[in-house]
Design a protein that fits this description.
- The protein has helices spanning about 30-40, 65-75, 115-125, 140-150, 155-165, 205-215, 225-235; strands at about 45-55, 80, 85-90, 95-100, 105-110, 130-135, 175-185, 195-200, 240-245, 250.
- The protein is an alpha+beta fold.
- It has one domain (about 30-250): Dihydrodipicolinate Reductase, domain 2 (2-Layer Sandwich), CATH 3.30.360.
- Strands 1, 2, 3, 4, 5, 6, 7, 8, 9 and 10 form a 10-stranded mixed beta sheet that branches.
- The longest helix is centred in the N-terminal third of the chain and has 13 residues, at about 65-75.
- It is globular and about 50 Å long.
- The chain starts with about 30 loop residues before the first helix and ends with a strand.
Length: about 250
């Protein structure tokens, strides 16, 4: 396994990025991280965190910042936290079925880079796996894996960069976004697995991300209550749109 830069992949977007470096991913990363911390606080021994983001009603095209991040990820891979270190995994090589609240339901998801992977690995004590995903259609998952293969060739990289840079960035302020987070723990030993699921959704992704990252700053919360307070603060901010919830632990049948 090869160590990679834990700060994340992709080119920063000046509209969304902050000094905390947390708003530069493909997902609603900061919201997902705070949900994960809140959910982890309900388990004695959290072991695995999976966060999945989705853009809804955003059309076929992606905002320019997201196109650039995908192209960067196709070249550099998607980092995951595995047993105490950030490791490199090819874009789209890890898939799972993410369960969004009704009426959305289950969605196919592929692994993508995120700046919160190392943050959560370091902050949530004892966690063995942190991976971030993007919910896509099955044909999009295949296309993204093909993109990763294409990025290995000089001609392919040039074509992908033209796609990333073409045209002005599409305004995405009103597109709906959502994220689900699942935290798995073995509270009383490996035979007593418990799962906590949380979710958040809203619109104005960039502005919401930036405000959450501003509130977090460099003083990253370890306490579940502080993570919840930060989410509540933004949820009550006029002009922003954020709703969130974290459930109670449920027993996972083995």
């Amino acid at each position: 396994m090869t160590s990679v830069d834990p700060s994340g992949h992709g080119r920063p977007d000046s509209d969304h990025a902050t000094g905390a470096g947390l708003a530069d991913g493909l997902l609603p990363d900061v919201a997902a991280a705070l949900i994960a911390i809140r959910a982890s606080g309900q388990l004695r021994r959290p072991r695995e965190i999976r966060a999945t983001g989705m853009l809804m009603d955003s059309g076929v095209d992606l905002p320019g910042a997201d196109r650039r991040r995908l192209v960067a990820a196709a070249t550099t891979g998607a980092g995951a936290w595995v047993d105490g270190a950030v490791v490199d995994e090819p874009l789209g090589s890890q898939r799972w079925l993410a369960w969004f609240p009704r009426p959305t339901g289950p969605r196919h998801a592929i692994n993508v880079p995120s700046p919160i992977v190392a943050r959560l690995g370091e902050q949530v004590h004892g966690v063995r796996l942190v991976r971030c995903h993007l919910a896509v259609r099955s044909w999009q998952a295949e296309a993204l894996q093909a993109m990763a293969n294409l990025a290995r060739l000089d001609t392919g990289r040039r074509w992908l960069q033209r796609w990333a840079d073409r045209g002005p960035d599409r305004v995405d302020a009103e597109a709906r976004w959502a994220t689900v987070v699942e935290v798995l723990g073995d509270d009383d030993g490996p035979d007593d697995a418990r799962l906590v699921r949380g979710w958040a959704h809203g619109s104005r992704r960039g502005e919401t991300q930036a405000e959450l990252a501003r509130l977090v700053g460099d003083d990253w919360p370890e306490e579940a209550d502080r993570a919840a307070t930060t989410l509540d603060s933004v949820a009550m901010t006029p002009g922003l749109d954020l709703r969130w919830s974290v459930g109670t632990p449920t027993v996972v049948a083995r």
